[in-house]
C-alpha cells in the first residue's frame, strides 16, 4: 500500500474556470471545511492540486495542531490522509463520502515540519472507490499512509 503513490503527478490548479465548470455537479464545497476551507479560522486550509491521476499538497504543521508536546496530533494526520483521497476522487468527478479509513502511522510528525501529502484512486467498483494516500516529511521519510473505502453518493 502506498508504494507507487510517490510518483509525481502533472499539476493543474483546482481553481481553473474549466475545472470549476466540470466539478459543478459535485457536492458543494464549504469554505468552512476543516481541512480545505479558506474561511475556517481553526482549519488546515489545505491547497490541493492535481488531476484525474492524483492530488498533492504541502502543509506546514503549526502548534495549533499539537497532540503531545511538539508532536502533531494523530487526528490531524488522519484528516489530511482522508482529504487527499476524497479530493483524488473529486478530481475524477466522483462524489464520495468516506466509509472506512485505515491509517498506518510510521513515525512522529514534529510541529513546524513541512509535509507533502499525496492521494490517488486505485480502484473503482460500482459504488465503492478505493483510494490511497501518503504523507512524507521534508526529508522524504514516510510519516503515515492511508487506505480508504469511499462510497459514491
TrEMBL record:
Residue ranges constituting the Thioesterase domain according to the UniProt record: 71-141
EC numbers for this chain: 3.1.2.2
Keyword vocabulary terms for this entry: Apoptosis, Cell membrane, Cell projection, Cytoplasm, Fatty acid metabolism, Hydrolase, Lipid metabolism, Membrane, Transit peptide
The keyword tRNA processing appears for this protein: no
Highest taxon in the source lineage: Bacteria
GO annotation (BP), single: fatty acid metabolic process
InterPro entries documented for this protein: HotDog_dom_sf, THEM4/THEM5_acyl-CoA_thioest, Thioestr_dom
Enzyme kind, highest EC tier: hydrolase
GO molecular function annotation: hydrolase activity
GO cellular component, one term: membrane
Pfam family of the protein (one): 4HBT
Topological category with respect to the lipid bilayer: Peripheral membrane protein
Catalyzed chemical reaction(s): tetradecanoyl-CoA + H2O = tetradecanoate + CoA + H(+); dodecanoyl-CoA + H2O = dodecanoate + CoA + H(+); octanoyl-CoA + H2O = octanoate + CoA + H(+); (9Z)-octadecenoyl-CoA + H2O = (9Z)-octadecenoate + CoA + H(+)
Subcellular location: Cell projection, Ruffle membrane; Cytoplasm; Membrane
Family classification: Belongs to the THEM4/THEM5 thioesterase family.
Identification of the protein by name: Acyl-coenzyme A thioesterase THEM4
Origin species: candidate division WOR-3 bacterium
Organism lineage string: Bacteria, Bacteria division WOR-3
